[in-house]
Write a structure and sequence with these properties.
The chain is of the alpha+beta class. It contains six helices and five strands; from the N terminus they run H-E-H-H-E-E-H-E-H-E-H. The structure holds acetyl coenzyme *A.
Length: 175
C-alpha cells in the first residue's frame, strides 16, 4: 500500500476496470507525486497546459483534495516505467432540479500519444462512470469534438444537445 497522498479514497475505483487493464497498468486516484510521473505531459494531447512548478501543481492538487466530494481526477499508471499514461476527471455538480440532483461532468480525458488504441481511454471513462454512479449522479455528461463521437458511443454515451461557448476577451471592455 502506497503512503503517497492520494486525491480521494481508493474505494471509488472500480475493481472490474482494474482487472480489465493490461498487465503492469494500474488505475487509481491522482497522487501528489504524479507531477514527477508526467501527469501534465499527458494532458498536452488535449491543449496547452502551461509550465506549472511543483508548488503551483500542489496548490491545485490540494484544492481538489479539500473538495474531494466534487473533484475526482484519476490516472492510469504504467507501473514498469512509473509513468502516468492516461488521465481523466469527473466533477460532481450539485443542482436544485431533479430533487437536489447531482450531475457528473467528465473533463480532460487524455491518453499519451504512444499508448492510444490499448483501450486505456475506455477504461478511464468506465472508471469515471463508476464514480458518478457511486456518488448518486442521475446523469453523466461531457463535451467533445465530432471526431471523438464514435469513441464516446463505444463508451456508452449518446449524442444530446449542443455545446455553446463564450471566450472571455483579453481586454476588460466587457466589465
Ligand atoms: N474514432 C473512432 N473510434 C475510436 C476513436 C475515434 N477517434 N478513438 C477510439 N475509438 C474506438 C477504438 O477503436 C476502440 O474501439 P473497439 O472497442 O471497437 O476496439 C474504442 O473506441 C476504445 O478506444 P481506446 O483504445 O480506449 O481509445 P484510446 O485509449 O486511444 O483513447 C482518446 C481515446 C481519449 C480519444 C485518445 O485517443 C486521446 O487522448 N485523444 C487525444 C485527446 C482527446 O481528444 N481527448 C478527449 C477530449 S473530450 C473530453 O475530454 C471530455
Amino acid at each position: 500500500m502506497s503512503t503517497e497522498v492520494a486525491l480521494f479514497e481508493e474505494s471509488f475505483i472500480s475493481p472490474q476496470v482494474q482487472a480489465a487493464l493490461p498487465e503492469g497498468y494500474t488505475v487509481r486516484p491522482l497522487r501528489e507525486n504524479d507531477y514527477e510521473r508526467g501527469f501534465l505531459k499527458v494532458l498536452e494531447v488535449l491543449t496547452e497546459v502551461g509550465t506549472q512548478t511543483k508548488e503551483q501543481w500542489l496548490e491545485r492538487f490540494n484544492y481538489f483534495k479539500q473538495h474531494n466530494h466534487e473533484y475526482f481526477t484519476i490516472a492510469i499508471c504504467d507501473d514498469r516505467q512509473n509513468k502516468v499514461v492516461a488521465a481523466g476527471t469527473i466533477f460532481v455538480e450539485r443542482k436544485f432540479v431533479h430533487n437536489n440532483g447531482l450531475v457528473g461532468h467528465i473533463e480532460d480525458i487524455a491518453v499519451d500519444g504512444n499508448q492510444q488504441g490499448k483501450k486505456l481511454g475506455l477504461r478511464i471513462i468506465e472508471t469515471l462512470k463508476y464514480i458518478g454512479a457511486k456518488k448518486g449522479c442521475y446523469k453523466v455528461i461531457l463535451d467533445c469534438s465530432a471526431k471523438n463521437i464514435p469513441f464516446y458511443e463505444k463508451c456508452g454515451f449518446t449524442q444530446k444537445e449542443y455545446e455553446m461557448a463564450w471566450y472571455v476577451p483579453a481586454t476588460k471592455a466587457h466589465l
